[in-house]
Amino acid sequence: MMTSLLATTLLSTALTGSPSVLAADVQLAWTTDGKIRIIWTETTAAPNTVALERAGAADLPLGTRTAAQPNELVVEPAALDPSTAGTSAARIVVSEPTGDVARSAAFDRYTRDRAVPQISHLPNGDLAWSVPPDTVADSTPNDPLDSDQPTTYGLRLMTGEKPWTYDRCRIDYTTPTVAPNGVVSKQGSMEIRTMAYNEWGPSELDWRLVGSSSVTLNAASTSPYGGTTTLTGKVAAHGIYENPAPPNGALPICFDNDADGVRANTAITLQARDSATGPWYVVGPGKTDAAGNYKFALRTPGTREYRVTVGGTSTMRPATSPAGTVRATTRVVSAKFIDPTITVGTQPQAYLWVDPAGTQKAALQFKNASGAWQGLTYKTLYAGRGLVAFPWNVRGTFQFRWWIPASTTSTGLPVEAAYSGVFSLTVS
Q1: Residue 90 to residues 30, 60, 142, 144, 149: CA-CA distances in angstroms?
Q2: CB under 8 Å to 157, separation ≥6 — which residues?
Q3: Average pLDDT, rounded, for the chain
Q4: Per-residue pLDDT tens over the stretch 235-248
Q5: pTM to 2 decimals?
Q6: Are 367 and 398 in contact (CB under 8 A)?
Q7: Which residue, among 358, 362, 360, has the nearest Cα to 350 in the 3D structure?
Q8: Which residues contact 257 (CB under 8 A, 6 or more apart)?
Q9: pLDDT tier at 1 (50, 70, 90 boundaries)?
Q10: Mapping DSSP to helix (H, G, I), strand (E, B) and coil, where does residue 77 land?
């Protein structure tokens, strides 16, 4: 297809008497379906060879044409060996058996090189990602294969097994956007690949595993006011990874990665709130041990709801434990008779000391002959303490107890009602 390239080649031959290799009219353009059309002209039909000319590397053959075929070749972008080097200019070279060569204008085949995205976690646990700006300059501005479409960015997510399969990976792609950032609402373990897309195809900027965490919380349902509330639990870690596709063409396989793992020596935070609808606030920091276990011991300030949170990292998602309520009960410091042994005619004196130290109206009860508890008298406490005398002219040994109503602490936390232990009076 090319005994001589263009009229200029014929003129040069006529003047010099020898063939000359001159730049010819090799045109490049994108097709509507994203391929590259290569077109060239010649004066006499001849067989042609089409190749990619690159600096520092051998020419890459792209195809051939017989003398009878059109002077055109359509190739996929991948056939032109896309490069992450912005300065890697290339040309299309068309040659024929006598040695004439024609070249296209220089063009780049740039795809973005690897870049480390910033990974962070929003307060609701969503994952935010951001790719730094691309600083590579276009080495062949306005070349014939430059596109007016901007680079777009997105994520390839492997989130576990594909439904109704065994060990087969579920792959999802986020919708590419011009903005080099986004938010992923997935809450579990993921394999994340950050992708950039331009006219030369997709390029993988970064690959990482982002594991998930889980936090348990164990606590007694009740604790005496002012006593010790002990909260324990464990921070576990879980991940998944994708085994590369085997050479036989089978699909990649998904595996659990460290399914029984823990987040050892990791900072955690104990939070509380005063009601089921109130805001959470920080009680204090903590840290897991080498086995991922933690323990908090604190004074019981009233009824509160607790939870434990662990923060996220670039490779681990944050997590929050289920909430657990510890109901504070009135603590009976002392419940007794001043003199537990008296004679008939002497009024017994029943004493009570409770915490929180308020003005609760406590009820003194005794167990009657039928074995049932029966109310006897009331006493309004002062600073949590009270003493009441009452007539009792029956001989024998009798059981008593105090009932203390619910109250509210000075900080507004509720404290539930409680009974004292049983104490005895002997009358002779």
Answers
A1: 16, 11, 14, 12, 21
A2: 171, 172, 173, 174, 184, 186, 190, 191, 192, 193
A3: 88
A4: 999 888 777 655 66
A5: 0.73
A6: yes
A7: 362
A8: 189, 209, 211, 238, 239, 240, 241
A9: very low
A10: helix
